[in-house]
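Researcher: Going back to the complex we discussed earlier. I've cleaned up the inputs and rechecked each line, so this should be the final set. Can you rerun the prediction on the complete assembly and write out the structure?
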Amino acid sequence: MPLTRFDFPSDFVFGAATAAYQIEGSGFGGCGPCHWDTFSATPGNVVRAESGVRACDHYHLWPQDLDLIKAAQMDAYRFSTSWARVMPDGVTVNPDGMDFYDRLVDGMLARGLKPFQTLYHWELPSALADKGGWTNRDTCLRFADFAETITRRLGDRVASIATVNEPWCVAWLSHFIGAHAPGLRDIRAAARAMHHILLAHGLAVERLRGMGQPNLGIVLNFDHAEPASPSAADVQAAARADGIFNRWFIEAITRQSYPEVVLDGLAPHMPDRWQEDMPIIGQKIDWLGVNYYTRHLHAHDPAAPWPHLRDVPGPLPKTQMGWEIYPDGLHTFLTRMARDHVGDLPIYVTENGMAFADTVQDGAVTDGPREDFVFAHLAATKRAIADGANVKGFFYWSLLDNYEWAEGYEKRFGLVHVDFDSLARTPKSSYHAVARALARND
Ligand code: IFM
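Model: Rerun complete. Updated structure for the full complex:
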């Protein structure tokens, strides 16, 4: 028997997640340019140089998208409010952008859906990118202003606010690996972004807390780090990878410190007097969001500079992204966060899902592997609750097929298929399986 909502506590929240740039269409409603518009327009960065200019046109089609969430029997919707839409130059308010989110939140409430808002899911306004983006401390102060502005409009109706989605992606993936905007591969830029994105989080929490806003949190992504072999060198390599991906952000927030294993490489490149910011970064949060997708095997690479890492392909079945399917890793992180970091604080699985090469046949999409994936990860979540983690909700990534960043529109994560020519939405078999599992008896 597949799991149903009755296998979870009665107040457990089930939902789906999206993000503004990935679905809305940045070409509408006075949205300003952001660094993803220029990153994608630069040859070689994004599959087919695709951008989010039209995406799923959720800007116009949002009522039917909210209807889909409701019809899936979900309780909540995790969405993000684009900084570039609300403040096209990063500073000046766009009334149409504010009105759009106002309608969207009211639309959720009208359908009985709890709005779970994320403030920063990566559309940094170009005007701020021009000034150095996350390498520039001033961006953190501008972010707190944005947080205050949008919260003055929506804060009376949202159920929770996350400051930042996946700071590892904002900082490391984008400034060290160079795979996301702004596409830098520079350890000094990376060290600064690793710190500044956390400072932005802390300044936003401080500002919103001062306004009396409840339910403030952050969404971190975690990737299970395993040594590629039992050798001491590979075990240490996995510890370095774990430090960069899984320890840096949560330890800053819950312990006001950074792991030594990462400072070994980053300390010379950190901003001056970074230590003075740690009390701001380490303020109390009300909940933690855990995004989890996969694990990686790490080997020591003596030929590469610090962190001397080389990924080794693993043996497990993989998603369309090439990511290994490893549900136990979700159980590990949920229990690890509760045990080592947040205690009884509510934890939400804010993203979990898989890309699959779905096709529409005779008007339907059959995505059995996604159904298996979702229920295996729900089972891991249930085990984590039984083992003491205070997990309060689970959001599938994503409601819709959408703009998968550097992968363009090629990788499909949705419960609902999107035809990117006609924009037709077709619920997949996984959508129907989730709706059956979440149906109430009344
Ligand atoms: O699409 C992304 C999302 O924007 C952030 N978390 C991971 C998803 C899948 O790669």
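Model: Worth noting: The chain has a mean pLDDT of 98.
Researcher: Good, that matches what I expected from the previous run.
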